[in-house]
Write a structure and sequence with these properties.
Elements: E1 2-6, H1 11-24, E2 29-33, E3 41-44, H2 54-60, E4 63-68, H3 83-98, E5 106-112, E6 122-123, H4 134-153, E7 156-162, E8 164-166, H5 176-185, E9 190-193, E10 199-204, H6 205-214, E11 222-226, E12 230-233, H7 234-244, E13 251-254, E14 264-265, H8 268-273, H9 281-295
Parallel strand pairs: 1-2, 1-4, 2-3, 4-5, 5-7, 6-14, 7-11, 8-10, 9-13
Antiparallel strand pairs: 10-12
């Protein structure tokens, strides 16, 4: 079975690729990428500026499964409404779907929980999809394109909406967790904006990769949130990271007039279809801490 994966050099994609190679072997995998991916056949993506026959002519004509991870993902809050970059998500997915892949049987599309309307209750797949950002809208539009394509071509799809993913490699994103880990490794105080009572539910990168690869074997088309199993406040998260440090560091609160938004998930659908066990948050955090410590030479 041939598998085509996009975004294989990214934070999530690189982990998925490692798992694919382990389970399916390198000969079964093709990476569509702007850079060469070691160990597997790589087809130049040309930034998705290619014609309808390009993939078929590049040796992807017998691909059975497409795992579409590659996309613009905001690395900072200021980027969530970048009109040009979010529009590229739609255009690139459109070109991919318009390419000739006559033997395609399944598409696994990696989306985001940002497609949902903001709410304070427990979030599941039945919640209203009204994104608050252009990034969220771009991913929701892509979801609908994938569904329409699969209905027309009579193939199956899995829409996987990723939650708050953490782990080794996330330091490229300007998020609270990698920032606090970086400070703890460097012996700096941990800064929290507000009272630290906002709740988050994190999912470890290895669990995400396992869920995505396991989706290959789902028979029915599904939309599933790929989210964590433990909810903690930002204050509790900071205290966990603080406990890893080999020197005294403090937790500092910076006043903020932004109200707390909690993210708590019902992941029963994920546990039913994709994975049953999760990496404990403290164990995953320690792995990321040790990774950052080695990377920073501390």
């Amino acid at each position: 079975m041939k598998i085509l994966i996009t975004g294989a050099s990214g934070f999530v994609g690189s982990k998925v690729l490692d798992r694919l190679k382990l389970i399916y072997g390198t000969e079964s995998i093709i990476a569509l990428s702007s850079r060469s991916i070691e160990g597997v056949k790589t087809v130049d993506s040309h930034n998705y500026k290619f014609g309808r026959n390009y993939l078929e002519e590049s040796g992807c004509g017998d691909v059975k499964v497409l795992i579409h991870i590659g996309a613009f993902i905001p690395k900072a809050a200021k980027d969530v409404d970048n009109m040009e970059l979010t529009t590229e998500n739609i255009e690139n997915t459109q070109r991919l779907l318009q390419s000739r892949m006559e033997q395609l049987e399944k598409i696994i599309f990696i989306s985001t929980i940002d497609v949902y309307a903001r709410c304070q209750g427990t979030l599941d797949e039945t919640m209203l999809t009204v994104p608050s950002t252009l990034y969220g809208w771009s991913k929701l539009y892509c979801e609908e394109m994938v569904k329409k394509y699969c209905i027309e071509k009579k193939c199956s799809y899995e829409i996987l909406r990723l939650g708050h993913v953490y782990g080794e490699g996330e330091e490229k994103y300007k998020k609270a967790m990698p920032s606090m880990i970086n400070n703890a490794v460097m012996g700096k105080d941990l800064n929290i904006y507000g009272d630290g009572k906002a709740v988050r539910t994190f999912v470890y990168i290895d669990d995400v990769a396992e869920a995505i690869v396991n989706a290959i074997n789902l028979y029915e088309s599904e939309t599933i949130n790929v989210v964590g199993n433990e909810s903690v406040t930002i204050e509790e998260l900071a205290k966990m990271i603080q406990s890893f440090a080999d020197r005294q560091i403090n937790i500092i609160h910076t006043p903020s007039d932004v109200s707390n938004v909690n993210y708590v998930f019902d992941n029963s659908k994920m546990r039913m279809h994709l994975i049953q066990s999760f990496t404990p948050l403290e164990a995953g955090l320690k792995r990321e801490y040790d990774y950052m410590k080695e990377k920073l030479g501390q």
